[in-house]
Amino acid sequence: MLGGPPEPLPAVHCGEFVLSLARPRLMGILNVTPDSFSDGGTHLDASAAIARGQAMAAQGADLIDVGGESTRPGAPEVTLAEELRRVIPVIEGLVDTLRVPVSIDTRHPQVMQAAIRAGATLINDIEALQAPGALECALEHEVGICLMHMQGQPLTMQQSPHYPLGVVSEVRDFLAARVARLERYGVGRQRIMIDPGFGFGKTRAHNLTLLQQLPRLVDLGYPVLVGLSRKSMLVGQPGVPPRERLGASLAAACWAIQAGAHILRVHDVAETRQAVDLWMDTLAVEE
Is residue 88 exposed (0-12), middle (13-18) or buried (19+ Cβ within 10 Å)? Predict the structure, then answer.
């Protein structure tokens, strides 16, 4: 049985933005893709994507995460030109109209650079800056950085995930090593977040174990971002469409914040905002 969440970290820095972590933050998912697992094709038009980002901010999103390449299991890569075509107009439109950080969800340094020039203030990288040039991009710009764990590549990562030393230990060791590398190059810890990568090269049992033992990652001392929203790991039976996983998504969100997560990456901002606010307000009630 979990007790109360650990003491909150003070803040995370994303360029000009400083986000207090006294309460959990919500990152709204904005996929500008035809094939993302839950909302692919919904916001392909730049104006529709910008409107969706604005709506999520109005519903309580503290950050908006823009992605132009699906990284669902089995997803093929897209060309750099196509990824740039999808995300840059959306980032520019959001930066011009919102006062919340806009994140670029990419593993490609060329897209990182262009997105930062367009106004993005957070790099959210599923490959934890391992691609050639990605680390250099992070060092060049004073933006926030989210390092995620993934075993394998999106096209094949779910074929045979395995963790001989235990999923929690291997994920923890990987993230600790990536963080240490950034800090050796002089990146301040206030700019760094970590993400265990739920669903990225992990079985349902791996994912549930990570969620159960999330405090072991929180203990590393960095803001922990979790992406559980609508994922298949949340339901035990096959065939439940992503949009019908809201109940499980909210339960997982509350478990995650109770375990110490600082940022929740979600599709359903309004509903998650209600659930998180009630959870935190209940914890704050004095007997």
Answer: buried
pLDDT at 151 over 60: yes
CB atoms within 10 A of CB 258: 17
Question: Is position 231 annotated as part of the catalytic site?
Answer: yes
Residue 287 pLDDT > 90, yes or no?
no
Please identify which residue in the block is written with the tokens 């959306």: 90
Looking at the domain that runs over 11-278, which CATH code has it been given? 3.20.20.20
Active site residue 265: yes
Catalytic residue among 25, 231, 245, 273: 231
Choose among 240, 94, 75: nearest CA to 156.
Answer: 75
- pLDDT at residue 120 is higher than 50: yes
Closest CA to 257 of 239, 236, 284: 284
Cα separation, 218 vs 97, whole angstroms: 33
For 32-64, the pLDDT digits (tens) are: 987 554 554 566 789 999 999 999 999 999 999
From the candidates 72, 178, 202, 265, give the one annotated as an active-site residue.
265
Helix, strand, coil content of the chain in percent (nearest 5) = 40, 15, 45
**Average pLDDT rounded to a whole number, residues 178-192:** 96
Question: What 3-state DSSP class applies to 195?
Answer: strand
Strand segments, DSSP code E, in the chain are: 11-14, 17-20, 25-31, 63-67, 102-105, 122-125, 144-148, 192-195, 225-226, 263-266
Separation of alpha carbons 236 and 168, rounded Å: 21
219-249 pLDDT, tens per residue? 999 999 999 999 988 987 888 888 899 999 9
End-to-end Cα separation, the chain, in angstroms: 20
Residue 75 gets which letter from DSSP? P
Q: Report the distance separating Cα 264 and Cα 228, nearest Å.
A: 8
